[in-house]
């Protein structure tokens, strides 16, 4: 038999060994298929960045047709759940007790000023403890007020005098649903956990069980050992990825506007990077518990916080933005959100794929160097 045949047989033997190890260890299958279900349902249904049915108090000091019409606009809006108060003091008390998140105050001269063409301001008080929620609430109140004012001017046969006319168009996520934004990014977090955890304990397990010495005396070459360990976990991880995508599309109704096969290629590239990071951690640490802990700290937390999954990278301080370029999930989140919500936008996809490919080369070189140093 020639050298190529021997190498192929050794590689197949290593793949078979790791495959049997996966089948004997239910935790690997749970990481690949059970964990995605838990995380997708937890974030898909339990976490929402949308502001809906915000409790606000409406104070009308002098009820009449105009003031009730404006209050009705807030009642018909899906963004508000209004409560009525007779006096501003009662509304402020409810505001202090956190029963409402804002107050809309229509003073007694509101309608008279409006009919006479004079400025008719309304008082707005918003809870600023959560600055993001406060900004959203203020924006919704301004939008509702402007929509009502435009309709009121049309009913009165007047022309609403405004220096700028806003025509709003929302691209990629017209429903402004945070679920469509969160679920694609969550797939990157899931694949980061799958890839890093699956391989973080591979070599550490061999050391703990005393089987590493047996592997070292076999004719296996270092490259054959590494590839043989990666292939089964790569197949398992890609299966978890396909399962997550199926849940995203069919269960959470996230549109996949880009190419499915391009998604598979990008996911395979990112999965290899995640597997190599986990394998590097496993080689450096000879303890499974320590390897798993390092994998969560080094891969999951940066992917969760610094990838753009939840927090906008552009709003971070400049030094932190620089650090995000070291997080592989940053590039994969951008690819996923583009493929799911926008389509095959090649400048975005190719640039991020290029960054992942460079990371793949870098981590493979590190794994090869550390493996030779530790195992030979």
List descriptors.
15 helices; four-stranded mixed sheet; 2 domains; 376 residues; mainly alpha; elongated; 68% helix; abc type-2 transporter like fold
Give an account of the 3D structure.
With 376 residues, the chain is mainly alpha-helical. The protein folds into two domains: 3-47 and 177-375, no CATH class; 54-155, abc type-2 transporter like domain (abc type-2 transporter like fold), CATH 3.40.1710. Helix content is 68%, strand content 6%. It has 15 helices and four strands. It has helices spanning 3-24, 26-46, 65-76, 88-96, 110-115, 131-155, 178-200, 202-209, 212-216, 222-251, 260-284, 288-306, 318-324, 328-342, 346-375; strands spanning 54-60, 80-85, 102-106, 123-126. A four-stranded mixed β-sheet has the order 2-1-3-4, sandwiched between helices. Helix 7 (178-200) runs antiparallel to helix 12 (288-306), helix 11 (260-284) packs across helix 12 (288-306) and helix 11 (260-284) runs parallel beside helix 15 (346-375). The longest helix is centred in the middle third of the chain and has 30 residues, at 222-251. The radius of gyration is 29 Å and the shape is elongated.
